[in-house]
Write a structure and sequence with these properties.
alpha/beta, Rossmann fold, 9 strands, 15% strand, binds phosphoric acid mono(formamide)ester
Length: 302
C-alpha cells in the first residue's frame, strides 16, 4: 500500500522517531543516491520559498529528478483543469508527488486520486506536516529531548497550519506544556484544545507573554497571515500585535530557542537575529535533512 503524509497524525510516534534518526543520518551525510532513476513532481499551487526549495534540494541530494511548477499560473489549472485531472496525469509521470495547495483538504483529496504517494507541503490553514517534522528535529537537536518541553506558540494560532501540526505531534511525547499566546480573534481553534483536554495535557492561553517568557524552552513565533483574512481591517488590527525584541530575551532560560517557520514580517525584530537563542535560520536548514528523511521513509528507500 502506498504511504502518504497528509496530516501529521498519519505517522505514529515510532515514525516521528524514525524520521528524527534518518534526519540525523542525512545531516551527517546528505548526498546519497537513494532516489536515482526516480522522478518527483513538485506542485506548488500557493507561494513558497523554504518548503519548495528545501524539498528540491533534498530530492537533488538524494539523486532524484524534479518536474512540476512553482506557479499554478503556468499550469493548465488556469484553463480550468480540475485538481482531480491534474493529479491523475501527474501520478502517471512521477514516482512521488509533493503538493502545496490553498484549500484545506486538497492534499487528502489528491492522495485519494493519486496512484503514487503524496506528501502534503501545506494545505490552507489545515496542516503542514513536513514543517512539523523539521520543527521537531530542531527541538530535539537543541533540547536533546522531545519530552517535558514548555512550548510557547505565539501569533496566528487560528490559521497557522504549522502550530496545528506541531501541537498534535508534541502531544505524543511525555509531559508537554503548551502556552498559547494570541489575540482573541486568532486563538487556537477549540478542536485542538478539546483534544488536549481529553489527553490530560496542560495548556494555558494568554494575550501577552512578556511576564511569563522566562518559563519557555521553545518560543515558536508565527506570522499573522494576511492571505487568510477576508476582511483587511481585521488584519490591520492584529498584524503587529507581537514583536519579539532582543531585550525581551534577557531573563529567558539559557537554552531557550526561538523558532519560526518563516517567512517573518515584523514579529521578530532583526535585533534578535544575532542572539544565540535565535534558531530560525538553522531550523530552515534542518528542513533539508528532515525532508530527505521523509522522502526516504515514504518511498521505503532505507
Ligand atoms: N515555512 C514555510 O512553509 O515557508 P514557505 O512558505 O516559504 O515554504
Amino acid at each position: 500500500m502506498k504511504k502518504d503524509l497528509i496530516s501529521i497524525t498519519d505517522y505514529s510516534k515510532e515514525e516521528y522517531l524514525r524520521i528524527m534518526d534518518l534526519a540525523t543520518e542525512f545531516e551527517e551525510d546528505p548526498n546519497q543516491d537513494l532516489l536515482k532513476g526516480k522522478v518527483v513532481a513538485s506542485l506548488f499551487f500557493e507561494p513558497s520559498t523554504r518548503t519548495r526549495l528545501s524539498f528540491e534540494t533534498a530530492i537533488s541530494r538524494l539523486g532524484g529528478r524534479i518536474v512540476g511548477f512553482a506557479d499554478p499560473g503556468s499550469s493548465s489549472a488556469t484553463k480550468g483543469e480540475t485538481l482531480h485531472d491534474t493529479i491523475k496525469m501527474v501520478s502517471n509521470y512521477a514516482d512521488l508527488i509533493v503538493m502545496r495547495h490553498p484549500l484545506e483538504g486538497a492534499a487528502r483529496y489528491a492522495a485519494e486520486v493519486s496512484s503514487v504517494p503524496v506528501i502534503n507541503a501545506g494545505d490552507g490553514a489545515n496542516q503542514h506536516p513536513t514543517q512539523t517534522l523539521l520543527d521537531m528535529y530542531s527541538i530535539l537537536k537543541t533540547q536533546e529531548t522531545l519530552d517535558n518541553i514548555n512550548l510557547f506558540m505565539v501569533g496566528d494560532l487560528k490559521y497557522g497550519r504549522t502550530v496545528h501540526s506541531l501541537l498534535q505531534a508534541m502531544s505524543e511525547f511525555e509531559n508537554p506544556i503548551f502556552n498559547f499566546i494570541a489575540p482573541k480573534i486568532l486563538q487556537m481553534p477549540n478542536a485542538y484544545k478539546i483534544a488536549l483536554k481529553e489527553k490530560g495535557i496542560k495548556f494555558f492561553e494568554h494575550e501577552e507573554f512578556t511576564d511569563i517568557i522566562s518559563e519557555a524552552d521553545i518560543i515558536y513565533m508565527t506570522r499573522v497571515q494576511k492571505e487568510r483574512f477576508s476582511d483587511p481591517i481585521e488584519y490591520e488590527k492584529v498584524k503587529n500585535v507581537y514583536i519579539l525584541r532582543n531585550s525581551m530575551l534577557d531573563n529567558t532560560k539559557p537554552n531557550v530557542k526561538i523558532l519560526h517557520p518563516l517567512p517573518r514580517v515584523n514579529e521578530i525584530h532583526p535585533d534578535v537575529d544575532s542572539n544565540s537563542k535565535a534558531y530560525y535560520f538553522e531550523q530552515a536548514l534542518n528542513g533539508v535533512f528532515a525532508r530527505e528523511a521523509i522522502i526516504t521513509h515514504t518511498m521505503n528507500l532505507k
